Amino acid sequence: MNPLFFFALLATIPALGAGVQFPSDASCKSPDGKWTLVCKGRVNDEAEPRLLLLNRVRGRSVELRRIGRYCDTMWSPDSDRIALTDRWASDRSDIFVYTVADRVPTKSVRELFPTNAVQGEELAGHCYFEACEWLDRRRLRFKVFGHTDEFPVRSFDHQYILEVTSGRFEKATKKKPNQTVQRTGASRSAVETNRTPVAAGSRR
User: Domains in the chain, please, with CATH?
Assistant: First the structure.
């Protein structure tokens, strides 16, 4: 095989678990190859509505979401769900989880998230919710990060795991460098669940 052709082929293969950012000319195919996410509309024109479309192979296309600024999408390993990080404002972002069967998103993760899990000044500041990876078909690791707006300004970065069917949140803790992470099919990077549910508390 021609070496140049081989490297060009590798460049077209997305990393396992990697998502795609929209609007763009790219497409995001589900792991089982039955669905594809594409964007309709001018990529660089925020004045024109950009539509995120869910296409079924040899089937019809349906509108999944209207994109204001931009968003990141990530398929679950079983191709049943899409985690969508909507970066809708310069100081805010949110996560929505779509189930392909009905294409109706869960409530925003920000709205479901217990407000007593992090400090109020963090939620009120530049606060971003971002999907990181699917640990398995039902568990999504995400982070809440950003910086406070009041003096003294400080940054923050917390990681959690959402069990999407029950809506339960768990704190994700980083492993120490000399510890190993047991792999159970899906990559967990350097994060594990401590199995301590986040207190329900009040919600937005």
Answer: 16-197 (2.40.128)
